[in-house]
Fold:
Amino acid sequence: MNGPIRIEPVLTKQQMKAFVAFPHRLYKDCKQYVPDMDSDIADMFNPRQNPGLAFSDIQGFLAYEGEDVVGRVAAIINRRANETWQVSNVRFGMLDFTDNPAVSAALIAAVEQWGRERGMTHIQGPMGITDFDKEGMLVDDFDRVGGMVEIYNYPYYPHHMELLGFEKEVDWVQIRIKVPQEVPAKYARVSALSKEMFGLRLIKVSRREAMGEWGRRVLQLMNQAYSPLFGFSQMSQEQIDKFLHKYVPLLDMDMVPLILDEKGDLVCASITLSSLSHALQKAKGRLSHFGWFHILKSLKVKHEDTAQLLLIAVRPDMQGLGLPALVFDDLIPIYNKKGYKWAETAPQLETNVKELSQWKPLNPEYIKRRRCWRKAIAAQ
Structure:
């Protein structure tokens, strides 16, 4: 019989180690789970490593049954997002728990109480501090291997959320395509027409350029393109620099097409990263103990058969004018040359019809639905 559940805030280094380590034990025998890097989780709580904490508050909690850790969660208030969307939300993120309703209930109650004490009226999640953190609870396709930029969770998680009175706020889906041998005629036609009508040209930049001004221009474009999307808050310059430092070293710059207009202004950017799912599984969340070896081997020696299309960002005034066709016209031959058989997007909002519709010529498969849950915080 299960014993009483005790919740403790994460306040010490030892508790943080337990917070970081818990999923490794929970998902030890799960072949689909792709672990986060331990350092990435710890850095989320460190103001010196996470510039998002300049406008956000975060508190981790651990659930204990006796002396055993049986769950974890982070409570987050993104003040910038709340101001942008005129809401009073406390977010929950990094939620993991054993299949015991008392554990999930205690963890969510801790987040609600923490949020209530700070004037929040609703709880939502799973979400991170920003839109570029992992978000959305997996609600189907549990048999598919997870990815570097997405949450994996056991099938019992959504049932627990329903028991706790949560309702769907929004869903994300991912697109998976088999890479065609040739560029679809529609993309080639639209690409040529867009270049002619709008004076567009596609360029590639070096890794050094991407670490500097060009990288900042790409992320500033993302701020513009994604600002209308659910829960988004603008990235600060400090966040932009941190993002570049983290991701640019992992990129193959051949798969980062940038589109300029006739004035030389950046109007579209796309970033593809070779899938690191199996490499991260082998690394087991650690860069030491040969963790880096598995990642570098996947990037430099023998990559996986799937390309992870992290994003396509189009300047708002140029959306709907066929710019993604230029991206696919460039990337499909490169995918083939490099031996990628599949391409898979990061999670995309199901309500973002413009983005989802651009995949139609590639016969897309919609996979890995994820959900943001929401409910009102009960008054005490």
In short: Residues 194 and 322 are 7 Å apart (CA to CA).
